[in-house]
Amino acid sequence: MSRFWVETVAGLKPYVPGEQPASVSLVKLNTNEHALPPSAAVLDAIRAIEGDDLRRYPDPAAAKLRSMIGSAESLSPEHVFVGNGSDEVLAHLWFGFLSGRPVQTLDTTYGFYPVWARLYGSELIEVPVHSDFSADLESLTGSANAIVLANPNAPTGLALSRKEIEALVATNRDRLVVIDEAYYGFGAESAAPLVPEYDNLIITRSLSKSHALAGLRVGYALAQPELIEGLNRVKDSFNSYPLDAVAQAAAAAAIDDSDWLLHASAVVAESRQVMADGLIELGFEVLPSLANFIFVRHQQLSGARLFDELRVRDMLVRRWDHARISEWLRISVGTRAQADQLLHGVREILQANAP
Ligand SMILES: Cc1ncc(COP(=O)(O)O)c(C=O)c1O
Q: Do residues 125 and 98 make contact, with C-beta atoms less than 8 angstroms apart?
């Protein structure tokens, strides 16, 4: 705390991201990074960067990248906004469309939403999920100006269908519906085809998970041009060049390699099944996930104990102290080898803690 801090900064409760340990020998299943390395085309694009690309400022509008993202979704570049990770896109969106306004979300969801709500002075109405963690869509129609949902949701991995999202968007035409599709690409239906029809829908996506590019920091939004223009006004009031030249070139190569996405998503889905089946066999409850992580709870062993015992065995997963989910662990889907290591470790822990 410094005497130079303004009051707002003193009152902030910043988001705490998952640990990024220096040790590479850890089985790191705590921040939902992709199990595979990114497409080789991405690394080629980075190697092809020349001195002049770095000497000059990058294209502030990221026109080529936005056009490629748009084409992949049958949308125009004017329907696309890109930013430095989807967290930045969401932050701009919150500032531009939700500041000072009541916003509904779920009581079990991405931990950054309350941080932005506080930062931008929105009242955050956290609607309780059902006991199985599914969203209570009936309760999401009230007086708030906007609804923010992650789909698939984090940390549960549960997904709503496009039909359910459309019903929500269609019955709330005067409220903005934000669908955070950070975990798009692992089996859930996207709401992107609804964009041309609804001016109250905005979708955010990330290349961090689906394209194995968490280190590159690229995210984007899809919405009708009037909303995108609002985001550009916010962006150009913070930083005109959020995406550097390397990120623009690498992200374009990633979007272009749709075969990689199909292959990598199939690998994750298969590994997710192996992990889920193995854990169910060991007495875990596993929520049906359409993301690259699973949310699990053991019938006998506490979440805290399991977390600690895994950590001792060099396996890092994610756990929160919030009452509703304190017994649960969120485990990122790793490679098949990591899935085997995890199951082996859990078996050992259960044997060592057998009553
Ligand atoms: C639900 C959700 N939204 C957004 C993000 C932000 O992703 P990024 O900033 O890496 O694009 C995350 C990251 O964990 C997430 O879980």
A: no
